[in-house]
What we know:
Two copies of one chain form a homodimer.
Chain A: H1 22-35, H2 48-55, H3 59-71, E1 75-78, E2 82-85, E3 90-93, H4 100-106, E4 111-122, H5 125-131, E5 138-148, E6 151-161, H6 168-175, H7 178-184, E7 190-201, H8 204-209, E8 217-227, E9 232-241, E10 245-250
Parallel strand pairs in A: 3-10
Antiparallel strand pairs in A: 1-2, 4-5, 5-6, 6-9, 7-8, 8-9
Helix pairs in contact in A: 1-3, 2-3, 6-7
Chain B binds a DNA duplex through residues 4, 7-10, 21-23, 47-49, 57-61, 63-64, 77-83.
Amino acid sequence: MLTRTPRGLPRKNSLQAQGVTLWRCIADDFEQLILLGKYENGERLPAELDVAGRYGVNRHTVRRAMAELAVRGLVYTERGSGTFVKTDKLDYPIRRRTRFSEIVAASGHEAEGRLQRHRVEPASPEIAERLKIEPGKNAVRLEIVRTADRVPISVSTTWFAADRFGDVAKIFRRHRSITRTLAHYGISDYRRQWTRITATFADAVDAGRLRLSVQRPILVVESLDVTSEDVPVLTTRGRFAADRAALIVES
Amino acid sequence: MLTRTPRGLPRKNSLQAQGVTLWRCIADDFEQLILLGKYENGERLPAELDVAGRYGVNRHTVRRAMAELAVRGLVYTERGSGTFVKTDKLDYPIRRRTRFSEIVAASGHEAEGRLQRHRVEPASPEIAERLKIEPGKNAVRLEIVRTADRVPISVSTTWFAADRFGDVAKIFRRHRSITRTLAHYGISDYRRQWTRITATFADAVDAGRLRLSVQRPILVVESLDVTSEDVPVLTTRGRFAADRAALIVES
DNA sequence: CAGGATTTGTTCGTATGTATA
DNA sequence: TTATACATACGAACAAATCCT
């Protein structure tokens, strides 16, 4: 329970930093409890009035805290039923054979990849080096949004060398799968050579595409895929909603 | 430019929160600019006197801000030349043999691991399952901060089964390395079985330990290490400053 | 190469606000 | 309340390294 001054202002204590609002304290408390596993996935949180009583605050304050947790992707509420913990994420293994559709299908969900935009542009030095083409030569750039059960999981920007894959956008739109698109070019197998993972925030564009609030954490996954003869085929910069997916490395 | 009272005290303004020091405001400003890419890697920042003039502060104050940015690992200074942006990240490969000290040493930096706190506690269901011990049996929990060239890279919470590794904290404090600590227990080799990567924000505690501003992105790396006979040895929840490290998966 | 301009590093000194015993 | 220590901030001067004409 939080101690409060006679005027109702929160007083400093060990858990509560100066200037932090009550609802944020409550939200942070529950986030800790959820992340520490005190509440399991799918479990119902105590009723709003219960929580309000325990903290000695108004029910509206608890509702504000729960709204914050919903924004953080940790809970969802069902009217008349309660607020439930939602912490399961799609496990996304990073392997030699990394195929979005196979991964999602294997975990029992329905995968979809939609080409949003595409463009032919001169390759940046970075992209040229990865694809082993000369800097300034053309590359085809695809922007793909991937969903599992219609929930957006990632947006990816993928580059191909334009001289070999000039009409890759058209082919992809027909097949809706990188694997089948490459098969069309006679590449029956390809493998992930390296993957580089870091994290940032969602910018406005990505947040919109991922149906995510801005400033939510994003896993940035850069990667290079090559043929079985180690010839670079495509390189990708994927942005995964960290609230909805976890990357798994087995070794 | 910051307005100041006649007595030389900083006055509140839009950029400056209450009770925040001048040098911290300037440091945070530049951190934002750097992280937003307004200054590229290797680019020179304006001269100290320039910045001092623009903010209307003494050169010492700017120097204090730059020192902070250097501590955060975002810039370095060269006498007579200037202050330069340094945003390349430490490449942290995730492999079967994943050893912090070896990784950092291989990239030419000085690694250090400091045990901050430790505790014996009943294992949560999650931890018990990973370590293959019975839920509720004791586990030793270590909180370790790891640095490269004294720049904090990660904070890790590591659990060991207490029955076998009861005094692991003492041993670790002596050896300052997980590898050497396990050697003390007769475990000459161990390997990473799986790694699970997701992302969030730094909370106040982690931000403090990582000398990072709060709300910066954090890579959350959970993992299990086993002996060569696949016996679980330790499990870890690491929080990496995403601004300072990128995880690499080669396959 | 010379030499002046620029830029960071260092050391004095002064004053004020904050935290602690 | 007082005394002490510490952090913040400003000012001036000079040293040392680098850059540029």
